[in-house]
Amino acid sequence: MAQPAYIVNTGLITAIGNDTESCKASLLAERSGVGKAEYLQTHWKDEFPVAEVKASNEELAMKAGVAANWPRTALLSAVAVAEAWLPYADKLQGMRTGFISANTVGGMDLTEQVYKQFNQAPETVPMDNLRHHECGAGTQLVAQHFGFSGFVTTISTACSSSANSIMMAAQMIGNGMLDVAIAGGADSLSKFTLNGFNTLMILDKQPCQPFDNNRRGLNLGEGAGYLLLMSERAMKACDAIPIGIVSGYANANDAYHQTASSPDGRGNKLAMGNALKKAGLKAADISYINLHGTGTANNDSSEGKAVAAIFEDNVPFASSTKSYTGHTLGAAGGVEAVFSALSLQHGIVYPTLRWETQMEDVAFKPATTLQVGADIQHVLSNSFGFGGNCSSLVFSKA
Amino acid sequence: MELYIHSAGIISAAGSNNTDTFPARQEADVLYCAEPDYKDMIPPMQLRRMSKAVRIGIAASKMSLQQAGIEKPDAISVGTAMGCLQDTEFFLTKMTEQEEQMLTPTAFIQSTHNTVSGQIALLVGCYGHNLTYVHRGHSFEHAMINAVLYLQEQPGEQMLVGGIDELTTGSLKAMQLAGLYKDANNNGVVAGEGAAFFVASDTAVANTVCIKDIDCFTAYDMQEALQQVRRFAERNAIADADCWVNGMHGDERDGFYNALSTSLFSNVPVISFKQYCGEYATASSFALGLIVDAMKNGFSKYGIDKSIRKVVMVNHYKHYYSCWYMKIV
Predict the structure, then answer these.
(1) Confidence at residue B252, expressed as pLDDT on a 0 to 100 scale
(2) In terms of CATH, what superfamily is A246-396?
(3) ipTM > 0.95?
């Protein structure tokens, strides 16, 4: 029998706050982080709102105590890892600690600044702009900064990336390969992703409206979210009190289209169903679903139908926190895992912001009223992405 | 751990392992893949839209599935350090030249790092677990570790595991400037690329390669790296290995391998695999493929005539090291 992975601490940075506590305050105040880009230099600044972290690279570097020439993704990662890890860093001597991170853009924010020049006269390009281009480079920078010398890896499965980091960490704690894991992911905004999503015509020119019949698309966001996970032994060694456990996880593939979800959400259903099975729970046991809920016509329809198929007429509270943070891509699973942990801890149901009209093809209504102190025993968190990658996680009270 | 490798599909500069001439050594500073005839593997309409990374990845997958005698695996695990560079560079070039105007989606769609694993799932209709690791010189090793984790939970299933990295003119230039690949002044190592995919399971079958241990570590100093290999050797009692496969690439950085060949492996027959595939972040997947192929078709093509049971593979890509201990069962 696998041992449980306990959630001991969290680290978070998004457009609605620079740590877990300030993000929570924004969620409780129903404050959205979507607005005009201040730091991302793009032609589309006035056209497409984004959910940008309210700090320059220099400010992020200062906060994390690292160099400002790191890719922004690595800077965001360092800030969130510091919050989750540092309070326990000295108490875990001799424990096998893993750092399992995820992202999709790597050092693209730096590469794209010099790429035109690189095509014309590569020798003249400062190597600092290219050195950390790979997705794994940012993880390694952060690992070296914090002295993580054991198992360190990077996962990239588009928008489900960091849900998969948490799954892997739970497996490795479960089978005794690790005692402690910092698991989640990070992604910064970049011109590359903004323009890419624009070619797909799925960006909303206004703040997004997930699960609304008149939804127009998604807002891109950025951030980082990590869980500090421990085995029971590690937790006892540092006298930690668990927030909850990772009770279920599943990864499936929709195998339908490179970017679109199948109309009936086949992969989504497999991921949710298998995660429930892994947790040994019935659908009726779930108290709250943190939806993938990007706000695109395609995702919300497929996901909505898949949720309806699994939960039938008893869909629990379900909402999309992307109406606050935008879609943080490779960070989304980590960010929303932290929101799920907060939901367990404080009994919070986050209202979906800006929801107005019931979807025609999905019968349930997303949660639109804030609740605090609700009886939240089990939270299901969905992360679906390009390449058909679908992952679901279940978090439960310890 | 015990992970059984049932088949291998390799696309490399040394050709594919379903030909008699494999591995055919090419003399060049840049080793691009000798691509196969895709006719029987990929529908032509789809082939036209595929970048090199996607088509070599899919062809290597199909070859390994065919060799294992299965239509589709239960799950897929892929390692790629750089992902789909050709599509990334195409979209980046257009975006920067056209000042973010008039862009089309195809290259962007195919630029994500999980494109290869997603396209395989799509082509064979695999709805199972699907992961992509992008951790530099450990990407393929971590895809293998993921296979171990998956098969512990789903014993008896068959997983497709692969390593893939493509070389483009842009990445070649960038890595020459960074000092890795051979440049005009002949500094650096031979550049390479390739795809190698495997069908793996936890089920023992006669005539398979069984992976008993994989150790991944980073080291910034040769003594530290050697120390780590020695620990690995002790842990697995591999002093009596029948063969060792190493990633020597013929430049001054080979001090590490030379130190091992005069100490730990002083009397052990050796195969240096990077002369066939060149240097790239997931080249260890080519090495595993070479071992699986040699098990089937004989080690004599590498001048080794004794019976081989115990194989050790040691590789590093920059400061990312891995040691593999395998048994032929």
Answers:
(1) 67
(2) Thiolase/Chalcone synthase (3.40.47.10)
(3) yes
